[in-house]
Amino acid sequence: MIIIDGDSAGGNLAMAVALNLSTDSRITHPLKSQILIYPALQAFDFQLPSYQTFHDESGPFIISTHGLVRAFLWYGAGKTLFFNSFLTNNHTTSALKRSKYSNFVSEKNVPKKFFNENYIETKSDYGDEETCNEVSDWILNPLFAPLMATNESLSKLPPTFILLAEYDVLRDDGYILAKRLKNLNQKVQLSYWEGLQHGFLLFGLEASEKAMNEIIKYVHKNV
């Protein structure tokens, strides 16, 4: 039995592998489960509540929207030419913002408690077509951005464990995935840790040990 696991960018890769294997007819031993630890799952909407809250690099946190955008651009394009467009969601056209892909990362799947008084509702009446044409092939590819997977593809995934931290720009990606999986009656276990930030499993805290033990317990239960 095989369980796949990854954290942060590794969570992105783990889910991409799970999506790929779920449709590979040559696989005789399908994945038993996937474990996604504060995963990076999309490059479509950088104005979700967590992306607005942890927007710049002035805070004490490990990762910000600025840093994540740079990472995705290096990964997808090999350059940061479109940095400002991605930060402002100008990299997707108005039509794309109204498409099924927008529903895949809908803020409606983010808990209401994260929409504070500083949240700015995003609009769908703008976007640069030239930039979109340059980047759409990869930002819409589920093997690059797993939240772009259709419901049909998500329904083929193995049971999923998702671990999230409160102070993390990637928090909302995980919540959206969990909600989409639940809506499909897929087995999903969400572990949310208040008062902690991205990468906390490596911090040597009491909470780090408790979270790791929760993952170990999940593995034992599902193997």
Automatic annotation (TrEMBL):
Species whose genome carries this gene: Tegillarca granosa
Alpha/beta hydrolase fold-3 domain segment(s): 2-61, 138-201
SUPFAM superfamilies noted in UniProt: alpha/beta-Hydrolases (SSF53474)
Protein name: Alpha/beta hydrolase fold-3 domain-containing protein
InterPro entries in the record: AB_hydrolase_3 (IPR013094), AB_hydrolase_fold (IPR029058)
